[in-house]
Amino acid sequence: MVNEKGKMKTEIRIEKFKGDFKSRDEAIEAGVKPYEVIEIEKNCLLNEGINELWTHLCSAGGTKFDNGNAYIGVGDSSDAAVATQTGLQAVTNKLYKAMDETYPTYGSDQKAVWRATFGTADANWAWNEITVANGGSDASKNLNRKVQTMGTKASGTTWTAELTITLE
C-alpha cells in the first residue's frame, strides 16, 4: 500500500524601503537596503482560487495567475481569513498591484513566486490583509488571503510584497 502525502508551504515577505522605487531590484541597485523585512508563514487558500487552479490543470479555461493577469492585493481589514471569502475584505482601503516585470516565477523547485511593488503613492494605510488574484479587483479569483498586521505604509516609502507557494 502506498501512503500518499502532500504538503503546501506558503511564505509572504514584505520589504520596506525609504524612497520611491519601481521595484525591489531598483532599490537594491541604488544601494538602498530595506529598513524592515517581515516574513510570514501560512495563509488561507480560498476556494475560488483552488477551483481556478483545477480549471487550468484540467481544461483550457479560466484566467491564469501569470504576469499579464496576476495582482497582489493589500487592504486594512482584520477580519479573520475564511476559505469561502472572495477577495480582500477591506471596504475602502485596498489596492491590487500588477506583478513586477519578471514575476511570477515558476517551473522549478515545486514553487511559484509572485511579487508586486507598492510605490510612495500606493496603499498608504495599515496593511492587515494580503492576497494574490488573477485580476485587479475583488471580482477576480483570489488564490489566498492572509490576515496579519504588517505595519502602516506611509508616503515616501516603497514596499514590495512577495508570496511563495511551494508544493512538496
Question: Could you describe the 3D structure shown?
Answer:
It is a single chain. This protein is mainly beta and 168 residues long. The chain is 11% helix and 41% strand. The chain is built from 2 helices and 10 strands, in the order E-H-E-E-H-E-E-E-E-E-E-E. It has helices at residues 24-29, 47-58; strands at 8-18, 36-41, 44-45, 71-75, 94-98, 105-108, 111-118, 126-133, 144-152, 157-167. The strands form 2 sheets. A 5-stranded antiparallel sheet has the order 2-1-10-7-6, with no helix packed on it. Strands 3-9-8-4-5 form a 5-stranded antiparallel sheet. The longest helix has 12 residues, at 47-58. The radius of gyration is 16 Å and the shape is globular.
Keywords:
168 residues, mainly beta, five-stranded antiparallel β-sheet, 2 helices, globular
